[in-house]
Amino acid sequence: MMKRILLAALAAAAMLVGAGQASAAPDRVQVGRLACNVAPGVGLIVVSHKDLTCWFHRDGFRPERYRGSISKLGIDIGVTAVTHIEWLVFAATHTRYTRHALAGDYVGGSAEATLGVGLGANWLIGGSHRSFALQPLSVQGQVGLNYSVAFAALSLR
Q1: What is the pLDDT of residues 12-43, one digit of tens each?
Q2: Which of 77, 121, 132, 151 is least buried, going by the fewest C-beta atoms within 10 A?
Q3: If we measure between CA atoms, which residue out of 134, 139, 127 comes closest to residue 38?
C-alpha cells in the first residue's frame, strides 16, 4: 500500500519537474538523468549524513553507477526509509562529457517534508570542473516522518 502511495507521489512530483525544465540556464543542455537511492536514516536536528547509490542514464549509452553520500547542515528532524531522488542533469554547452564525469562534489540547498509519504526539492551544482547542474527541482519520494530545510552537499564517486 505504501509503495503505491509513494509511486503516486513520485508521479505527481514528476509533473513539477517537467515544469521546472524551463528554468535551466540557456547556456546549459540536458545530458541525462541521475537516479539515486538514499539509505534510510535519522535527521539529527542540525546535521545528517546518508549514503547513496546512483545510476546516470544517457540516451544511447550504458548506465553509469556512482556511489556517494549526501550531507545536510540545517534543520533536519525525523526518520526516513529508503528515499529515491531523480535529477535531470545539465551541462554547460561547451562541456565535453567523458565517462564518470559526474564524479565530484556538489553543493546547494534541500527542502523536504514527510508524514507517511513525502516529497522534496534539491538544487545542487558541481561535479567535474563545476560544469554540471542537477535539476533545481528534483523528484524525491520517501516514506517516514521528517522535516528538513538545509544546505546540502552531495559527493559522487
Answers
A1: 444 334 434 444 456 778 999 999 999 998 88
A2: 151
A3: 139
Write down the pLDDT at residue 154: 93
105-119 pLDDT per residue, tens: 999 998 888 877 887
- Residue 65, judged by CB atoms within 10 A of its CB (0-12, 13-18, 19+), counts as exposed
Check: CB of residue 128 under 8 Å from CB of residue 92: no
Query: How many alpha carbons lie under 13 Å from residue 97 in its C-beta half-sphere?
Result: 20
Cα 145 to Cα 154: distance, rounded to the nearest angstrom: 22
Contact 13, 140 (CB under 8 A): yes
Number of residues written out for the chain? 157
What angle is formed at CA 131 by the lines to CA 127 and CA 31, rounded to 5 degrees? 90
From start to end of the chain, where are the E strands? Answer: 28-38, 41-57, 64-80, 83-92, 104-126, 132-134, 139-156
User: CA 30, CA 55: separation in Å to the nearest integer?
Assistant: 16
**57 class by beta-carbon count within 10 Å (0-12 exposed, 13-18 middle, 19+ buried):** middle
Three-class SS state of 157 = coil
